[in-house]
Amino acid sequence: MKKTLLVYNPSAGEKGTSSAELIEQITANGFSCKHVNVKDNWLKEGLDTDLIVAAGGDGTIRKVVSRLLSRKQLDKRIPLAMLPLGTANNIGLTLGIDGNIGKLIKNWRNAKKRTIDVGFAKYKSGEGFFLEGTGCGVFPQLIKEMDRKNLEYVESATEELQLALTVLYGIVHEYKACACKVTADDEVREGKFLMVEVLNIQSIGPNIRAAARANPADGKFDVVLVPEDKRAALAAYVLGRLNNKEIPFPCERLKAAKVQLQWDGALAHIDDELIRLKSSKVKLHIEVRPNVLDVLI
Fold first, then answer.
1. How far apart are CA 78 and CA 72, in angstroms?
2. Residues 236-284: pLDDT tens digits?
3. Under DSSP, is residue 1 helix (H, G, I), strand (E, B) or coil?
4. Rg, the chain, Cα only
5. Chain centroid to CA 69: how far?
6. Does the N-terminal or the C-terminal CB of the chain have fewer CB atoms within 10 Å?
7. CA triplet 267, 272, 276: central angle to 5 degrees?
8. Residue 149 pLDDT
């Protein structure tokens, strides 16, 4: 019997799927299961298992991966299974891990392992890895403004996504474009941008599908550039998402394994973490770390 360690976030996204219910479904499919809270220090226990199960949203998955990346090089390499219970679930959507939780668990016995990349960003005052993306412009501003919102009365993940899209729509209209120099491998772009994102997956934030062809296993980032003159098109895209319409994302895309951003602004982000830059024109050095993580698909 394969051993699983369920790493669970009780506060992620939609309420209603308890750890007890997940354990019952996991054991019913022939796995043994131990349970820990995502906030616990579980790495030592996790090394004595066959499968780590991350149950929560994109933030939960990032916390689990952070623990896995801290293991020693010679430690056992343990695959990760995802049960998306969050608000956006961007990572799961890119990997095709979506839908009924019971069906996802049932599929583990026949699932294939896919090895995916992670990104690494370094700047003057810090560094960090990312699964989704890093960048500057309207998305760090969205993180900042959503952090100020009282979500106590938001009743569902759908409602929270709609709120985030509404806030983003206002930001796009008002945001002052910043000068940026982008070096993506051997290609250079300079100008004023509303958004510069280095993406490992297809969507970020409130399911903004900015890089529809991104492949987190190809050793390359999708670098997404939205210049100032695309403001109306970007606003139209966000409005379309608010009305459940999928239209092409208005941007230039580059593929690169190494990226440098010189951004004349105060904010950046690494996944859902807001980064306050200590001076303008800070350089962010970003590179892909290929084949780091084994995921059940």
1. 12
2. 999 999 999 989 999 999 999 999 999 999 999 999 999 998 766 778 9
3. coil
4. 19
5. 16
6. N
7. 20
8. 92
Q: How far apart are the first and last CA of the chain?
A: 20
CA dist., res. 172 & res. 168, Å (int)? 6
- Alpha-carbon gap, residue 8 to 241, rounded angstroms: 30
- Tell me the C-alpha to C-alpha distance, in Å, between residue 126 and each of 179, 182, 269: 22, 20, 12
Q: Retrieve residue 178's tokens.
A: 């910043």
Residues 6+ apart with CB under 8 A from 151: 160, 163
Whole-number pLDDT of residue 74: 55
Q: Helix or strand or coil: residue 295?
A: strand
CA atoms within 13 A on the CB side of 23: 12
User: Dmax of the chain from CA atoms?
Assistant: 58
Q: How far is CA 57 from the centre of its chain?
A: 9
Which structural domains are found in the chain, ordered by start?
Answer: 3-111 (3.40.50.10330), 118-290 (2.60.200.40)
Angle between helices 157-174 and 231-242 (to 10 degrees): 160
The answer to whether 180 and 262 have CB atoms below 8 angstroms apart is yes
Tell me the C-alpha distance between 209 and 88, whole Å.
11
Task: Locate 24 and state its tokens.
Answer: 């019952």
Contact 68, 52 (CB under 8 A): yes
Token pair, residue 209, equals: 């599908």
19: helix, coil or strand? helix
Low-confidence residues in the chain, pLDDT < 70: 13-16, 72-74, 279-280
